[in-house]
Amino acid sequence: MKRQSKIFLVLGLAGSVIVIFIIMLLINRNHHIGKIEEFELEIGQTITVTFAENSSTGYTNCWINQEKCHVVKLVDQHYKSSLSEMFGGIGSGGSISWTFQATESGTDTIKISDCATLRMQKDCDFFSGDSLRLQSDNGIVSEYAPYREADHYIIFTVVK
What are all long-range contacts of 54-59, with beta carbons under 8 Å and residues at least 24 apart? Predict the structure, then answer.
């Protein structure tokens, strides 16, 4: 009888964990971003967008045209491990969520690219679309593909 009770207890707990996991997936209100997404916001409104992120590759998501965008600002950013990563899966990654707040009316297109920040030991500013790297004699050493296509485009239209 004790053995059956233990089996039912274990099955009950496992079932509860599965149900809770499914509920968490269903109530996740973040927008998982594809190649091109468009959002309309009112001034002061916030929205959270989520991208896949796996820093074990040496690459991270960077907002490469941040200095040119004025209708929204980044107010929060947080990383969430995948279930596989939580259980010790090496290289499995997770997701990064960015919360934007509408600050003024207009339209901006935010460009997000997967940049070699960790591999090259540089921050996202190094990979911005207008960045040039200069030698001491002012000759251009390199330019990090400023005209390459971004991985994600988010078009924000902010209305009053």
Answer: 54/91, 54/92, 54/93, 54/94, 55/93, 55/118, 56/90, 56/91, 56/93, 57/91, 57/93, 57/119, 58/116, 58/117, 58/118, 58/119, 58/120, 59/114, 59/115, 59/116, 59/117, 59/118, 59/119
